[in-house]
Amino acid sequence: MHEMELAELWVAIAFLVFVGILLYAGAHKAIASTLDKRGARIAAELEEARRLKEEAQKLVAEFKRKQREAEAEAESIVTAAKAEAERLASEAKTKLEDFVTRRTKMAEEKIAQAEKQAIADVKAVAADTASRAAEGLLRVATTGEVAERLISKGLSEVKSKLN
C-alpha cells in the first residue's frame, strides 16, 4: 500500500472510532433531543403566528364592518339634515308669505279705515258748513219767532242726515 492510501485508511478508521464513541456516549440522542426541542419551539412559534394572524384578520374585518356602519350612519345623518333644512326653509318661506299677507291686509284695512274717517270728516265739515250757510240764508230770508224755529229745526235735520 502506498503511503497516501494508508493515511486515508487511518483517517477513515479514526472517523469510525469517533462516531462509535459518539454513539456509545449517546450524543445522537442529545442531538436528536435538541433538534426535537428546536422543532417544537419553531412549531409553537408558527402556531402563535397563525393565531395572531387570525386575530388580526378578525380585527381588520371588525374595523371594516364598523367603518361601513359609521359611513352608513353618517350618510343617514346627512340625508336627515338635508331633509330638515329643506323643511325649515319651506316652513320659513310659508311663514314669511303669511306675515307679508297679514301685513298687507292690515295696511289695506288701515287705508280703508283712514278713507272712511276722511269721508266722515269731510261730511262733518260739509254738514257744518251747509248748516251755517242755511242758517245765514234763513236769517236773511226770515225774521222773528218763526225764523228761529225754522232755523233750529232745519239745523237739527241737516246734522242728523249728514252724520
Automatic annotation (TrEMBL):
Coiled coil (UniProt feature): 39-117
Pfam families referenced in this protein's UniProt entry, alphabetically: ATP-synt_B
Subcellular location(s) of the protein: Cell inner membrane; Cell membrane
Membrane topology: Single-pass membrane protein
Residues annotated as transmembrane: 6-27
Entry keyword set: ATP synthesis, Cell membrane, CF(0), Coiled coil, Hydrogen ion transport, Ion transport, Membrane, Transmembrane, Transmembrane helix, Transport
InterPro entries with a match to the protein in the record: ATP_synth_b/b'su_bac/chlpt, ATP_synthase_B_chain
Domain of life: Bacteria
Subunit structure: F-type ATPases have 2 components, F(1) - the catalytic core - and F(0) - the membrane proton channel. F(1) has five subunits: alpha(3), beta(3), gamma(1), delta(1), epsilon(1). F(0) has three main subunits: a(1), b(2) and c(10-14). The alpha and beta chains form an alternating ring which encloses part of the gamma chain. F(1) is attached to F(0) by a central stalk formed by the gamma and epsilon chains, while a peripheral stalk is formed by the delta and b chains.
Family in the record: Belongs to the ATPase B chain family.
HAMAP family assigned to the protein according to its UniProt record, in alphabetical order: ATP_synth_b_bprime
Function: F(1)F(0) ATP synthase produces ATP from ADP in the presence of a proton or sodium gradient. F-type ATPases consist of two structural domains, F(1) containing the extramembraneous catalytic core and F(0) containing the membrane proton channel, linked together by a central stalk and a peripheral stalk. During catalysis, ATP synthesis in the catalytic domain of F(1) is coupled via a rotary mechanism of the central stalk subunits to proton translocation.
Record protein name field: ATP synthase subunit b
UniProt source species: Xanthobacter agilis
Annotated gene: atpF
